Amino acid sequence: MSVSVRHAVLGAISTLALVAGLTPSAQAQDARTIAAAEAVRDAAMADNIALDYVTQLTTRFGPRPAGSPSETAASEWAADYLREHGFKNVRIQEFPLVGWERGEESAAIVGANAQRLVVAALGHSPGTPAGGIEGEVVRFTSLEAFQAVPDGSLAGKIAYVDAGQLVPMQSGAGYGPLSRIRGAGPGVAGQKGALAFIMRSAGSDEHRMPHTGTTRYVNGVVPVPAFSLSAPDADQLSRLVGYGEPVRVRLSSTARTFETTSRNVIGDLPGRTRPEEVIVLGSHMDSWDLGTGAIDDGAGGAITIAAARAIADQGRTARTLRVILYGSEEVAQPTDTGNGGGAYLRSLSAEDIANHVFTGESDFGADRVHTLQLPVGAQTGPFAEAANRVLYPIGVLRSSVPETSGGADIGPIVRAGVPVFGLQQDGLRYFDLHHTADDTLDKIDPEQLSQNVAAWAGLLWLVADSDVDFRAMAPATPAP
Q1: pLDDT tens, 175-203?
Q2: DSSP state letters, 288-332
Q3: Which residues contact 464 (CB under 8 A, 6 or more apart)?
Q4: Is 115 helix (H, G, I), strand (E, B) or coil?
């Protein structure tokens, strides 16, 4: 940054501080902090740690299903990687898990219209009996229509829900309605007496490449074998059913569950003056087995590690930065204990939780960040203005909508009261790749990856080297 530009920025921030009624010493500290945040941001734009991490992770270990030997090996390697890059107190936190192995799967239409279907077994669904199962397909266009039929009315049939293609949106909002079908579908199928459950993949692509994902346990089990169809195969099956003649499908799966463990990998960059105050940067280590988990969520670990490292390269901050690579984010369990996020929360005392001052999660690929959402009560004021000044030059706009949940991994500590932020990424192509064999390293754009690192690093410096208290900003009774 040139001297003239630096002086202009410091002058603008000093003016902002005066308007906010801050003391001269607070004004000077804010000016120094924002200038340092800009320096960290600019240095991070030239980052190469993020690409190095995700390249090594996906190349050395490939897919990392929750509780698998590859997840275990990757966590050991990642712990060493953190140590090599200056992180302290690096530890692995192990917890029990029911794992799932895909085995072999197949599907085909049988009879006069005989043809193969491209499917993926859904996570944690049981296998079929040896030789597979066969039944007439009953098609529904919504979960609600499926739920409405009488219990037991689908005995001997295969339930099929085709709720249409996921609509690409920058926010990824189209995913929720379809992932809801995936989670609940097998349980509804069991209630209605169906032999099995199939659905159109929860994806926005048109490739013959099905999207997997977890199902939900009901009373400790996933009741029936469950599969997702690639979009072209879903179209094909729906057209045949639409002709009004019975369509029979044969399904086979050797999927199985097993007792295992998963792991969180945790590393700190201890604070200079207030090390007990912790900022958690979250992502997850596990991935589905079809691809190599580059965008979901190797990229998230890469972004958070590189952002923390970029900050450390500029000097120690007052507060501690803690990177957590959570285990087993992708899968449901017979008893919901929060998986990696729950295991981390249970390791904390009430005092520890009170000392967690800020958290965010990177779990939406590697495409550019476009919006900042701050904790409740922090949408306006000096901190919000400072964050806007640091992030706007790299194309990140402040939102008036607060972040309230974060994501699956940090969700448990957020619900325990830790203030949460969101750096929202461009999701237009995310669900083309998500949970498919196409989730591979070549889909990551290095420039957009570095912009993510810069956004995280610039924002976190403002928090980590200050005494901003987001809990104090939140209203006593949040608005509905």
Answers
A1: 999 999 999 999 999 999 999 999 999 99
A2: -SSS--IIIIIHHHHHHHHHHHHHHHH---SEEEEEEEES--S--
A3: 271, 279, 311, 317, 318, 319, 321
A4: strand
Give the CATH number of domain 103-254. Answer: 3.50.30.30
Q: Which of 283, 244, 245 is nearest to 266 (CA)?
A: 283
The number of beta carbons lying within 10 Å of the beta carbon of residue 217 is 19
- Residue 477's pLDDT is 60
Would you put residue 389 in left (φ > 0), alpha (ψ -120 to 50) or beta?
A: alpha
Q: Which two tokens stand for residue 101?
A: 């192995």
Name the more confident of 225 and 32.
Answer: 225
Query: pLDDT per residue over 329-352, tens digit each?
Result: 999 999 999 999 999 999 999 999
Tell which CATH architecture fits domain 46-99+259-473. 3-Layer(aba) Sandwich (3.40)
Distance CA 143, CA 163 (A): 8
Can you give the residue ranges of every domain in the chain?
46-99+259-473, 103-254
Q: What angle do CA 173, 178, 180 make, to 5 degrees?
A: 100
The CA distance from 68 to 100, in Å, is: 8
Q: Name the pTM for this structure.
A: 0.93
Residue 184 phi/psi, 5-degree rounding, is -90, -25
Distance CA 54, CA 57 (A): 5
Which H or E element spans position 360? strand 356-361
The arrangement of strands across the sheet holding 422-425 comes to: 397-398, 369-373, 422-425
At 480 the three-state DSSP class reads coil
Crossing angle of helices 299-314/446-464, nearest 10°? 50
Burial of 175 (C-beta count, 10 Å sphere; 0-12/13-18/19+): buried
